[in-house]
Design goal:
alpha/beta
Length: 146
């Protein structure tokens, strides 16, 4: 299995494009979710700009800080977090889908008088308006899952 955490320098791309990535598949569809991560990482290594990664539908579960991954499975949450740190990448999570899945940040936990928050670090709750804006600004919109 390839090392997914090591950043390798690829040849720079002079025809740089801007992308918005939509991830709709969760950890239970690990091969598709992993493909989304690997594709995004390679875009960044090739010198392209990723405006935002938007987690929607089942993918909101990737933003939960309250899950424990089996030792034989890839921790996609940690991989996305590292990529976000390494490339200052925005990881937006659909707020409506996240709330329905029980994933909240501190602000929403306070709003709904919940006992705590569980949104993983580097992930941010965003509305569909922010997704629409990122989609309008990019050269390419790529979606994973269905």
């Amino acid at each position: 299995m390839p090392d997914l955490t090591t950043v390798k320098s690829s040849a720079p791309n002079t025809g740089s494009l801007t992308y918005t990535i939509v991830v709709r598949c969760g950890a239970d569809q690990q091969s598709q979710a992993l493909s989304a991560f690997c594709f995004t990482k390679e875009l960044l290594l090739q010198g392209h700009q990723v405006i935002r990664v938007f987690f929607y539908q089942q993918a909101v579960y990737l933003a939960s800080d309250f899950k424990v991954m089996p030792q034989d499975e890839t921790n996609l949450t940690a991989l996305w977090q590292k990529l976000s740190i390494d490339h200052d990448l925005e990881l937006g999570v659909c707020i409506a889908a996240a709330l329905q899945a029980g994933i909240v940040d501190q602000q929403e936990a306070n709003r709904y008088e919940l006992r705590g928050d569980n949104l993983a670090a580097r992930f941010t709750l965003v509305g569909l308006g922010q997704f629409a804006a990122a989609s309008a600004e990019c050269d390419r919109l790529v979606s994973f899952g269905g």
